[in-house]
Structure formats: structure tokens, C-alpha cells
Amino acid sequence: MRLRLLLLGAALVALAAVLMPALAQDETDSEAHGVCDVLFVDALDTAQTVCGTLEAGQVCVASDAIELEGATATAGELIDIRDITAARTISNDEARGLLLLKAPNEGDSAVRMTLYGEAELTNLVQPLPNPLPTLTVTNAAGYDVNVRSGPGRNFNVIGVFDETSEVIADGRDSAGEWVRIQLSDGAAWVHQSLIAADGDIQALAVIDSPYTLPMQQIALRTGEGVVCGADASGLLLEQEGEAQSVVNINGVELRFNDATLLVQSGEDNILKVQVVAGTAEVVALDVAQTAETGQSVQVALAEDGLTAIAAPQVDARYSFATIGSAPLELVADESLACIAGLGYGDGAVTVYNGPGVDYGVKFDMTLDVHYPIIGYALDDDNQLWLSLDTGRGQSWVPQNDVRTVGVCGNLVAIDPPP
Q: Do residues 225 and 239 lie in contact, with contact meaning Cβ atoms separated by under 8 Å?
């Protein structure tokens, strides 16, 4: 995890040396944290410099600790997302892998994917002709027709094909009974008996899966290692655009708008979706569960790691150590909070009623919780304290006692309680 300085303004520049938001708790952790910075800082700099203007359909290689199938590239290069079938990032004592992809999704949306640590993803979407053959179709039913999310009446109704509308059709099911059309808010399916086309429907490409865009359906495997007291690997997903994004990972469907998610799937064959910001719907075995910021959803998978065998389960919260090494500084969402918590192996930290031990003890902060940081203040000895949003009123911790992650550069000084 890259160290971030809290920007305290010109009056506090002299304190910069102490504004290290993720200090380790003992010598071993301190050494590990130093290694983290050395190995990851160049990749993060490359990502921020080269990948900042990443366009939909592009992949940005931020580190040489990467293996690609279907293409070759070195750090700082951009390649076409359609050229790769799989990607693996490497994390060891000598390297930290980092790869960014911007996958086009439904309508005008795109999903920015950041693969880091020891992780591997494989594109499971079958390639379609590019460009797709198209036809112009009109509503032949004489009334507004329901359209569905997939080719069949068992799929949900997601809108209507207006009686007077004329749209583009760009696909069909294998039987030619259902046709995919492009409405203003994305793709939908309509029965062929309800439309009239300006050509042969059988000439359209066969689309048997609802996932047709590159990286819209993937297999993911993340490592079990720990770096800087936190999980070393994962896949960050960030949604861009107005339309809802839909991604299938290991047989589990994720639906989200304006959200940032961290997804992990290790040897325990459990898919874990942490909602870092926003809201997400997780669907498996026809059961949908909604999770909000700070919550996690887990789905048990079969031995193949690609098939859900249980409905999604929502956890009220996830530990800071789950996200503590995630490169959240690459997330474009400036509203993303700066978060404080503890890493694996850290002891409990005392939370006080104000910025100083004289304010009195409020409670002990443990590994299983994390809190947004509201701001900071100095105590009488000019030591930095952080104000936490714990939902329990004034809650302060010494900055040196906790780790932080997220957008921490916009914190402001606040007045301590009397």
C-alpha cells in the first residue's frame, strides 16, 4: 500500500514527517510496510500518469510483474482489451503486479477494473463478430411490447418497445425466436413475432449469453497472502456512466451504479464482494442481495470456483485488513472516504473523547471495524490525532496508532471539543 500524506495546509508543512497515515505496529510490520512501498510505488506512479485517461476498451499495464495471454506489453503501455484472454498479476518479495482495464458495459457505462497483488482473471465472454450485423426493426404488434433482460419469457421485463419506435437489432438466440434490440437505455430482448425487420433475422449473430462485452463475464482467483497487515490481492471495480453496470464473476452476477467494489475469490471457494462506496446488488441462484458502503456479500462456490452453490449472504461489515492494501488512490471517485482501521496482527487501539489522553477513554477499536476519518487536530504536544466517524459522538485516535486507505488528501483541521 502506498503511503499517503495528509495535506494539512501550509501552516503544518513542518509536520510532514509525522503525517504517515499507515504506520506499522511493530518492527516486523514496519519492515514489511517499507518493502510494500518500494515495490508498489513505481507501479502506482505509472498508473496515475499513464492510466489516468484510460478509455473504454483499453488495458493499461502499470507493472512488469504481469503475465498476459493473447498479447505482450511492458509497464506504461496501453493495449486493446479484446487482445487479451487472461491476465495475471504477480506479488512476491521482488515485485507487485498492477493492471488496469476499462471494460465497456451496458449502455454508456464502463467498469474500471484494477487487478493487483497475486491475482488472475480470465475473460469468459465468447467473442462475437466485430462489427455485429444489424437490422432495422419496427414494432409490428400494434401496441407497446414488453422487452426482457434475456432471450425468453423467464427473463425479467426491463422495459417496453414503443408501438411507434424504430430501433436497431444486433443479435438473436440460436433458435431465432428472440431478437436483441438496442433501446436508449441499453440492450433488451423481444420475441420475433412482435417485430418487423428490414432483412433476414437469421443473418444476425447468435447471442446465447447475456454477457457479450469484453470482460463482462470473468473467472477470478486472488491470492491468500498478506502485505502491510492487509490482504495483498484483489480486483477493484469502479462503475462509470449513467446506465447500470452488470458483471458476472465466477458465476455470480454483480449489478451496480456509481459504486466501488473490491472482489476476492481464493482457495476457500468463497466469492467476497466488499462495497467500498455506493450500493451493489449481488445475484446467485436467482436470489438477489443488496449491500451498501461498508458491507460485504459472500457467495459459496463449487469446487470449480465458477458455480454458485448457495444464495448470497450479507455481512454487516468487513475488516479494514480486507481493503488495507487496495490501491484506492487510483479510484476516480473523489467522494471516497479516507478510512482508518487496523491490520492483521495489530493490537486493539484506544479511542478517546478528544485529541489527547486527558479527554478520557471512549472505547477500544478492534480489527473487525473501520471508520471514515472526519478530520484532524493537534494535541498539546503537537502530535497528530484523527477524528473518526464512529456514530458515537466525538471519537479520536492518535494518527500513529492506525492505518489508513482511500482518498486522504482532502482532510481538514477541525476544532477539538472543549
A: no
The alpha carbon of residue 163 and the mean position of all alpha carbons in its chain are separated, in whole angstroms, by 39
Residues 96 and 117: their CA atoms lie apart, in Å, by 6
pLDDT tier at 3, thresholds 50, 70, 90: very low
pLDDT 10s digits, 25-69: 333 333 332 334 467 788 888 898 999 889 999 999 999 999 999
Nearest to 63 by CA among 115, 1, 22: 115
Alpha helices in 226-329 (DSSP H): 320-323
Q: What angle do CA 248, 251, 255 make, to 5 degrees?
A: 35
pLDDT digits (tens, 9 = 90+) for 169-206: 999 999 999 999 999 888 899 999 999 999 999 999 99
pLDDT, mean over the chain:
87
Per-residue cell: 148: 426482457
Report pTM.
Answer: 0.80
Return the H-helix or E-strand segment holding 262: strand 252-265
Selection from 352, 345, 386 nearest residue 366 by Cα: 345
CA–CA distances in Å: residue 253 to residues 182, 245, 323, 338, 418: 21, 10, 21, 28, 50
First to last CA, the chain: 36
Q: How far apart are CA 38 and CA 204, in angstroms?
A: 52
Instruction: Write down the pLDDT at residue 93.
Output: 78
Q: How many CB atoms lie within 10 A of CB 156?
A: 8
Residue 36, SS3?
helix
Q: What is the pLDDT of residues 332-367, one digit of tens each?
A: 776 678 899 998 889 999 999 999 999 999 999 999
Supply the DSSP symbol for 26: S
Sign of the torsion angle spanned by Cα atoms 66, 71, 76, 82: negative
H or E segment and range at residue 50: helix 27-50
Sorted by where each starts, the structural domains of the chain and their CATH numbers stand as 47-126+215-330 (no CATH), 135-203 (2.30.30.40)
The rounded distance, in Å, linking the Cα atoms of 6 and 10 is: 12
Tallying the residues shown for the chain, one arrives at 418
Neighbours of 152 (CB within 10 A): 12
